[in-house]
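Give me structure tokens for this 89-residue protein.
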Amino acid sequence: MKTSWIELSWIEEQLLGDPKPEEKLLFQAKLLLQPNLKGSVQWQQKTYQLIRDYGRQQIRQEIAQVAQELFSEPEHYSFRQKIKRLFQK
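Here you go.
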């Protein structure tokens, strides 16, 4: 079944927003009454998890790149020395 844009927006609002109690109750009722909706919600949650994981991986790569540059380039020698002194204490 193809999920509509409106349904995806509504699922997103329920998962990421701060829905009112009556909206939460309506969402739970729809999950019980519409089996396809439960699958759509699970796929949406999986998508968010993949996006978070990808973002974390990108940040780790950027940090590693900056660390490599700071601790290997000659122009950052004084910075390296300051960091080493902090951890010698």
